[in-house]
Design a protein that fits this description.
Length: 350
């Protein structure tokens, strides 16, 4: 079993990464000194598929778990949903030592984490991510929260988990489109800081546990270096300024991972145009996206709309849009001064 240790400003926590890890959750949690009542927050899709072995493992280790199934979907990642959870925690007599355990994708993790950060001013939190995206991205780094009608992730808190349990086996039930969307973030992590991961994806020959390990470690290295998102952590937004704009303009018909895939291709082309990255590297990125059946061609929206969508992005600083651009596979940087003309050239070319 791989145990990846993550340090943060107030301590550290383990990520247990292993096939079958879900069934060892109770034991791991007991080893951390927890006992008694706990709550599993999951949803109506994931609960029926994966809650049973988790409940059994918790009971076996002496816990008294309750299970709360939320409605499935980003549209339910709201304050209303979160508000509905607190009374159920009170009714089940969860106290300040009672862990809240997220079992699900990023949507469940973000809400359960926010509940754990706020119920009784904070209770222990455990992440059990069940999508590829949540494993390699959302479950590590301590960001939690909900959406407002005005925009995504506008309310939230930093909440570090006590532990993260990653069981590659749970990905067996994940729909292929979701898996592929998660692969876009894995490609992103390869470009940011893991050339071997990128190369393994190109070869198409890798072990899933190894892939998760490599991809998670990139996120861990970046968030450890910048836990409160004040500088270097911005590199995780590679492809996202473009990607968010495409997602938004498609009225979210494009999945996040698909937007990111096109965004990675755009960032690479922009980097080559500006002389930061070789044309050959950009070709490698685009070929890999193609091979993984991810999109890489920008949609044909009017440039003004795409530019406006990028400018409304909260990652904007001053009068320029900040771009994270690759220099090579495994090396990216933050560029603040990119002109509108350069971006237009990338998006109009197709
Ligand atoms: N906190 C962070 O740092 C961070 C980072 C990235 C993304 N996010 C958030 O994560 C969310 C997206 O997460 P996501 O892509 O995991 O989406 P998601 O949580 O909506 O999951 C996608 C779909 O897969 C289903 N599902 C999950 N696991 C399954 C499994 N093992 N088998 C079958 N079905 C399964 C879900 O029920 C859902 O229908 C967004 O809200 C985003 O804002 C947060
Ligand atoms: Zn993303």
């Amino acid at each position: 079993m791989a145990i990846i240790n993550v340090s943060h400003p107030t301590g550290s926590y383990p990520i247990y990464l292993e096939s079958g890890a879900l069934a060892n959750t109770g034991q791991h949690l007991a080893q951390l000194g927890y006992r008694g009542r706990c709550a599993i927050v999951t949803n109506q899709t994931v609960g029926p598929l994966h809650a049973e072995p988790l409940l059994a493992s918790l009971r076996e280790a002496g816990f008294e778990p309750i299970r709360l199934d939320l409605l499935d979907g980003e549209q339910f990642k709201t304050l209303e949903t979160v508000a509905g959870l607190y009374p159920r925690l009170v009714a089940a007599k969860l106290d300040r030592r009672s862990p809240v355990i997220a079992l699900g994708g990023g949507v469940v993790g973000d809400m359960a984490g926010f509940v754990a950060a706020s119920y009784l001013r904070g209770v222990p939190f455990v992440q059990i991510p069940t999508t590829l995206l949540a494993m390699v991205d959302a479950s590590v780094g301590g960001k939690t929260g909900v959406d407002l009608p005005q925009g995504k992730n506008l309310v939230g808190a930093f909440k570090q988990p006590e532990m993260v349990v990653m069981d590659p086996d749970v990905l067996g039930t994940l729909p292929e489109v979701e898996f592929r969307a998660g692969l876009a973030e894995v490609v992103k992590h390869g470009i940011i800081d893991a050339p071997a991961l990128f190369a393994a994806l190109e070869q198409g020959d890798y072990d899933l546990t190894w892939l998760l390990d490599e991809a998670v470690r990139v996120k861990v290295r970046v968030v450890q270096a910048d836990p409160f998102e004040q500088g270097r952590r911005a590199v995780l937004n590679l492809g996202h300024t473009f990607g968010h704009a495409f997602e938004q303009l498609s009225r979210f018909e494009l999945r996040h991972g698909e937007g990111v895939a096109i965004g990675l291709a755009c960032a690479a082309r922009l980097a080559t145009r500006l002389g930061h990255c070789s044309g050959a590297t950009t070709e490698r990125i685009i070929s890999l996206l193609d091979q993984l059946q991810l999109p890489f061609t920008p949609p044909a929206y009017p440039f003004a709309d795409m530019w406006a969508a990028m400018f409304s992005d909260k990652k904007r600083q001053g009068n320029t849009v900040r771009f994270i651009l690759p220099r090579a596979i495994g090396d990216v940087d933050i560029f603040n001064e990119v002109t509108e003309a350069d971006v237009r050239a990338i998006l109009d070319k197709k």
